[in-house]
Design brief:
This protein has 5 helices and 6 strands. It is an alpha/beta fold and 163 residues long. The strands form 2 sheets. Strands 3-2-1-4 form a 4-stranded parallel β-sheet, with helices on both faces. Strands 5-6 form a two-stranded antiparallel ribbon. The radius of gyration is 16 Å and the shape is globular.
């Protein structure tokens, strides 16, 4: 792939928390849903990529799906303390699908953005997704290309097929 030759994988989102965060004292317009299970190695960078968003009108629901990893409670508490828009729900392990469904039931918005606890999003992701959906009322969902990091670098640019 020609683009991959020029892609800089060292520009991972969320490597650091930006000093000036987009704050929102109003209502959330997007609910970010994250099942969490034994991903302590990644969750802080995932959190920074959420907190660095240019679009401030979100809530983030992280459901701890009975993680068995030592230090889970502490890292999730640390992340919750970073921003009042973040909620952590602790419960027994039921698996990623049921966990995601239960988190969606907790959402305060109609727009759901699923984000795994070891994924990163570019700082404009929520803004682009929101305005894409709002300016295309016939659309029910939006998606983006993907870059894989952590030693397995590749770009994923497949056309999504609803079928």
């Amino acid at each position: 792939m020609e683009e991959e030759k020029y892609f800089d994988y060292s520009n991972e989102p969320g490597l650091e928390l930006k000093k000036e965060l987009a704050k929102n004292d109003g209502e959330a317009l997007i609910s970010i849903i994250t099942p969490y299970y034994n991903t302590k190695k990644y969750i802080k960078q995932t959190a920074y990529s959420v907190l660095n968003q240019t679009f401030p009108y979100w809530e983030w629901i992280i459901i701890n799906d009975g993680s068995t990893e030592e230090g889970t409670k502490e890292i999730l508490e640390e992340i919750t303390n970073l921003d009042s828009r973040i909620r952590v729900i602790n419960r027994e392990n039921k698996g990623r699908i049921i966990t995601r469904d239960e988190a969606i039931a907790e959402a305060k918005t109609d727009l759901i953005f699923t984000l795994d606890s070891d994924d990163l999003i570019d700082e404009t992701m929520l803004e682009c997704a929101y305005w894409t959906l709002k300016t295309n009322p016939e659309a029910a969902w939006a998606y983006a290309d993907l870059a894989n990091f952590d030693g397995k670098e590749f770009l994923w640019k497949n056309q999504f097929d609803v079928e």
